[in-house]
Backbone:
């Protein structure tokens, strides 16, 4: 028998991501987070959320360190 996939509700996902439920709805309206509707409520696949989280982490990490700015050391 196949293992059942974990599905989050808005409340569970907001706890998992440590954000307010309003933030989840805002992300949904903008199409920035993967989710699906069951009747009037939203649900989120754990696997899809993990892929989304991984992609978010990649987006904020620079490919190489930025050049250093500031004063040169006094000699």
Residues:
């Amino acid at each position: 028998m196949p293992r059942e996939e974990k599905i989050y509700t808005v409340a569970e996902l907001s706890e998992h991501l440590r954000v307010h439920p309003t933030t989840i709805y805002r992300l949904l309206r903008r199409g920035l987070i993967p989710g699906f509707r069951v009747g009037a409520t939203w649900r989120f696949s754990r696997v899809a959320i993990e892929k989304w989280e991984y992609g978010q982490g990649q987006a904020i990490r620079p490919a190489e360190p930025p050049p250093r700015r500031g004063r040169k050391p006094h000699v």
Observations:
- The chain has one domain: 7-60.
- The two ends are 71 Å apart (CA to CA).
